[in-house]
């Protein structure tokens, strides 16, 4: 029995999440990620496609609920959800997929730090010298909309690569898998071969 299959058999929330519920959890997580991406893409279209001024370009939800776009709590909350999701779902990945998922996790950790810094500025009422609004570290060099499109891209692309390898594992990765995302689990495959 593989180590991953043994952990799943031992039970627990994380084991179940990365075993029998991994496919469903990934589906929910990817839906949240894509919905967030859609918001950023609509905002970008509003700015560059429709020529709207940046303060008026608020995405879909922000168009109806403008306070969402200006709420650092909302932005930090999403960054934290992304980080937690990447962390919680990581044990379900093996081999190449786990490497790429870990890259996304590391980049999202930094993205989360940037949002935490923005939130702290709002909560404690301080600004960086020479700024008039809460500003993240890299926002000192890049406009916020472009920077967040970049961040979301560099987190999402390794996630896509991870998902590709996760759904198309090689034999060793199949044997180490505790989930059924690729259509079978490593434990059942090992028993069939054994």
Describe the structure.
- The chain has one domain.
- Helix content is 71%, strand content 0%.
- The protein has helices at residues 3-10, 13-17, 22-49, 59-64, 67-70, 72-89, 95-124, 144-167, 171-176, 186-193.
- α3 (22-49) packs antiparallel against α8 (144-167).
- The longest helix has 30 residues, at 95-124.
- The protein starts with a helix and ends with a helix.
- The model is unreliable at 188-194 (pLDDT under 50).
- The chain crosses the membrane at residues 21-38, 73-89, 101-128, 148-167.
- Keywords: Membrane, Transmembrane, Transmembrane helix.
Brief overview, please?
With 194 residues, this protein is mostly helical. It contains 10 helices and no strands.
Mean pLDDT: 89
- Distance between the terminal alpha carbons, to the nearest Å? 10 Å
- Unreliable segments of 5+ consecutive residues: 188-194
Calculate Rg over CA atoms.
20 Å
Number of strands: 0
Please describe the biggest sheet, giving its number of strands, its sense, and whether it closes into a barrel. none
Structural class: mainly alpha
Shape verdict: elongated
| Contiguous helical run count | 10
Keywords: Membrane, Transmembrane, Transmembrane helix
Features:
single chain; mainly alpha; 194 residues; disordered C terminus
């Amino acid at each position: 029995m593989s180590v991953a299959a043994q952990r799943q058999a031992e039970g627990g929330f994380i084991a179940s999440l990365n075993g029998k519920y991994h496919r469903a959890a990934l589906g929910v997580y990817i839906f949240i990620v894509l919905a967030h991406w859609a918001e950023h893409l609509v905002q970008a279209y509003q700015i560059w496609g429709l020529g709207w001024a940046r303060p008026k370009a608020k995405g879909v939800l922000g168009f109806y609920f403008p306070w969402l776009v200006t709420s650092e709590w909302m932005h930090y909350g999403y960054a934290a959800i992304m980080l937690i999701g990447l962390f919680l779902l990581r044990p379900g990945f093996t081999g190449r997929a786990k490497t790429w998922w870990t890259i996304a996790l590391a980049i999202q950790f930094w993205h989360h730090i940037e949002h935490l810094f923005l939130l702290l500025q709002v909560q404690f009422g301080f600004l960086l010298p020479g700024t008039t609004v809460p500003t993240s570290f890299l926002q000192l060099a890049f406009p916020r909309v472009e920077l967040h499109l970049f961040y979301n891209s560099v987190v999402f692309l390794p996630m896509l690569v991870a998902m590709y390898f996760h759904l198309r594992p090689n034999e060793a990765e199949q044997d180490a898998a505790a989930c059924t995302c690729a259509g079978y689990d490593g434990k059942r495959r090992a028993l069939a071969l054994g």
